[in-house]
Structures are given as C-alpha cells and as structure tokens.
Amino acid sequence: MTSESTSGDEASDPITNPPEDQLAALALSDTDGQKNGVVYETPRGNEIENEEEAALTNSAPPGPAEAEESSEGGGGGGGGGGIVWARTNSEVEVDGPESPSSSGYAGGRGSSSANSDGSGIDEIAEVRNHGVVDGVSEAQTPWVPGKRHVDEDDASISWRKRKKHFFILSNSGKPIYSRHGDEHKLAGFSATLQAIISFVENGEDRVKVVRAGKHQVVFLVKGPIYLVCISCTEEPYESLRMQLELIYGQLLVILTKSVNRCFEKNSKFDMTPLLGGTDVVFSSLIHSFSWNPATFLHAYTCLPLAYATRQAAGAILQDVADSGVLFAILMSRHKVISLVGAQKASLHPDDMLLLSNFVMASESFRTSESFSPICLPRYNPMAFLYVYVHYFDADTYLMLLTTSSEAFYHLKDCRIRIEMVLLKSSVLSEIQRSMLDGGMRVEELPLDPLPRSGSFSPHLGHHTLPTDSPDRFREPYDGVGGPAGLWHFVYRSIFLDQYVSSEFSAPISSPRQQKRLYRAYQKLYSSMHERGIGPHKTQFRRDENYVLLCWVTQDFELYAAFDPLADKALAIKTCNRVCQWVKDVENEIFLLGASPFSW
Questions:
Q1: Other C-beta atoms within 10 Å of 352: how many?
Q2: Looking at 111-205, which runs of residues are DSSP E strands?
Q3: CA-based angle 177:180:184, to the nearest 5?
Q4: Tens digits of residue pLDDT in 231-268
Q5: 307-321 helix and 408-424 helix, angle to the nearest 10 degrees
Q6: Residues 537-586: pLDDT tens digits?
Q7: What span, in angstroms and rounded, lies between the C-alpha atoms of 62 and 66?
Q8: How far apart are CA 71 and CA 551, in angstroms?
Q9: What pTM value is reported for the model?
C-alpha cells in the first residue's frame, strides 16, 4: 500500500530543483512568497496531515454533558509525521473576535493582481463592477449549464484568474475536457500536465498533489486517463480528489471502462468525439460540487412524503421490478421518491448521483421518452445497462434500468402501468405539493425532545397537532434561525445511506451564503474522516461566520451550523433535539425498508 511522502527533502529527490516558472504556470498565478511544496506517493506509510487545528475526540458521547466534555478534549490533529504545506487559517474554540483573514473558509485569489473579497466561495476572481464581486453578484444570476468561456486559453489573463479548473486528458497528453476554455487551445497546457505525471512515474512514484502558494494542483490517474483539478478555493485535498473521482465516474457512465481498450490499441487515441455534446453533463456535475451534500456524504436524499404515499409508489415499482426490471427509480429533481431493485441487486449512492445528473442535465430526456445505454461504475464499470427515462412533469421522472438492449417496449408498458397507479392514488399531486412545501425547517424544531406520535411540521405529511397540545408552542428565541441560534443542519443515516438537510432560511438565504456554508461542511466532513487519525466522534468549531458542530456515531452523522455567538452548551442540547426530531419523522423523510447499499 502506498501513501504520500511529506518531507520537503524527500519530495525533492524525484525532481531536482523543479523550475519555479513551471510551478507558477501550473498554479496559474504568482505565489505569495510561501514555499512551494510537492507531495508524492511513496511506499512509506505517512498520510496527509489535516490543514487545520481541530478539537477532535475518539469517544462518542451518549448525552449532552458527555458531548461537551468530548468536544473540548485535545487532540488528534497531530498524528503522523507530515508537513502541513498550507497555512492554518482557522481556530477551534476561539471565542474572541477573529480577523477576516483568519477564517478557514476564505478562498485564495486567483492571481496576485486579482481583486477578491476573500470570501472564497466564488469560482472566479474578476474585477468588481456594478455590484459584482468576484464574478458573482449579490442577486446571483441563475447558473447556466454548459461550457464556459470557450474563447479563453492558458494565455488569457481571465482564464488564469478562474478559481477552480478541472481537466481530463489522456496519457499521451491529448486534452479531453476542460471546465473553462477550449480544449484544443489548451493542448500545450495539457501536455505540460501529462509531462509532470509521466516524469514522476518514471521515478517509480506517483504525484498526488502540488501546492504552490494558495493553489492546489490535485492529480488522479486512472489507467490511460488523467484527471487534474487546480483550485485556490481552500477546499481540502480529500474533497478535491473525491470530486475528480466523481468526474471520472461520470465519464464511465457515458463510455464505460472498456474505453481503456482503445488506448491499448492506440496510445494516441482521441476520445473527444465520443464525448460530443456531454459538456453540459460535466458542467452540471461540477456545479453540484457547490450545493449538493451527496457529492461528499456518499448518500442520497428523499423527497418528504407521507409514509402511505411513499408506500403506494413503492408497491407499483416493486411489481415492475418483479417483471424483469433491474432497478426502478422514481425521483423529483435530485431527490428520491421511491427506489426498488431486483433481488440481490444493489445500487451505490454515487451511482444514483451520477445517473440522476446525467438525466437532468440532458435536455433530450425531457422532451420525450428515451432509451439510452448507461454504465453504473459501482455496479459494473465494464458493461452498459440500458435506462428508460420518462418525465411525468417538469421535475418528476421515472428511470427503469435493464440489461437488455431490446426492452424498450416492455419498459414503456411498465411506465404506463406505473403512471396509471400514480395518478389514481394521487401520488403525483402529493409529490408536487411536497416540492412546494419544502422540508424540515430549523424554526420548527420542537421544544420537547421526547418521542411522540405525529409530525411536527405541516410540511412533513401535513399532520397537525390539537390546538390544546403543548407541542404546538416553540421555544422563544431572539434573532433569526432556530432555537439557540441554529441556522442549518445535515443529518446522515449511516445504515440507510440517506441524508436529510434542513431548508435554507435567513440569514443563509442567498446562494452565495449557502455556498460558503457548503464549503464549511466539506471541511468539517474531511477533518472528521481524515485517514490515519480518524474517524473522530465530535468536533466543535467557531469562526467569524459560524459555530459548526459535528457528531458522528455508529448510526448517524450530524453537521449543524449555528450563529457565531451561540452558546456551546445550548448548541449541544439543540443537536440532541434535532436528532430526536429526525427520529420522530423518519417515516416521512427517509425511504425505509430499502436494503442497505453495497460499498
């Protein structure tokens, strides 16, 4: 088993005095004077150190008091003999005011001459103009899918100022995909990336990440296909690597791993024509890295529905699955309504993410019923399955998967049966109502954490409590958000591989603020699951933006964001109430009875 070498002297052995201009070009900007570092994989046994100090413990607290004691315990961020190449930018348990530059979530500027407000949440750093900061206005213009800035190349100043790049290239240096700019104009840059990877591999080593100033250059080698991310968003290395894994998975959804055979026959094989028209699929997936927790939680989320409604949808899908369908999935946007698989067939949450992204990003699926070959990388990366897709309305769609390339008419008959039952049982109208009502809201967090019958929120099954019930009253609190300054939470059921996220509300109401919180959750998840010294059980982190509290047990993971002035004891108590609330309404927010997914 190999891991990375973290000694500066050791890193310099494979490459003697790497040229400064090469690293600067690789990072797309001048560095700020910080020493450049290159990290390689060698057969040594050290792991990447966490780039932030964190209050981490290894004992799961059963109650509020123990949770407080555990999260104050010292610890676990110093294991291993590694070198931290990036600055330590945030503190844990710092109750006093912090300077804006001390936040762990402030992104680096794309260039030493670029204007940036330091928020670190925007993908590009451009000159401010008419209320636009770093290329994103406070009004937040809607995201438009597809290729961006096709007129740019690596000589363009604007291209160098982009905060996050993704590249796919072949082992011969041929560009396959670039998030920004025209792949053909970036042929020289792709050749440089390929040369770096090959040079290190010739030394019987593998390059994993290069850090130059505020930039990280993350490499992922998958046989003849190379994937590279260049970022100054200060996202953790583990998060960026997982994003590259998902991009590679999306590539396999379209082509399968059998494409490697083409490179075996011809090392200069050009794969670009095979991906014609799929830029929108990759750009949609990359956009989801900024808003969809499923991209790092390895779990899926369900649309809140009454238990009886979900059961009615599941029953007809089960009938279809018994007739020879491998998987039957009913979804509304990225949320699952019901999912049924054939006996002994299991579907990984990452495959669901990639499949739903492929369907939602392709406009052709919306216009008519479609039948398309697809690959599920976690199910079988070498073979195609076939998916029948039909949209019932603008958001709700059905996916039926089979191994037969001649099953279109059979799947169409199955869809007609499903649609008749969904209309007759009013499932489709309930789905539309749930989409309008939304999910759990922190303002509706119940006061009493004791179990009770019925739902607390009219948005979850639309149950209401008697007018004389004390449960109708909520704990009074000042300001915005929920009790104790709770702003948002994400709860992941480990056994079900499902998560539920509260609705965004003030003060996290703009896409800009939501993206910042998402990045904060990413860092929290990465530090909690850091290899070598994790997983940890609790973490309490405070900076000028939030109080973040994470609690991991064998049954669930909870990530919660509070007002930065929130009291620690009250925050822990509130998290216990959130867990009880989720437990009380689990019939409506989770798909129960589904077999656990294989990993």
A1: 24
A2: 132-133, 136-137, 164-170, 175-178
A3: 50
A4: 999 999 999 999 999 999 999 999 999 999 998 888 88
A5: 160
A6: 999 999 899 999 999 999 999 999 999 999 999 999 999 999 999 999 99
A7: 7
A8: 9
A9: 0.75
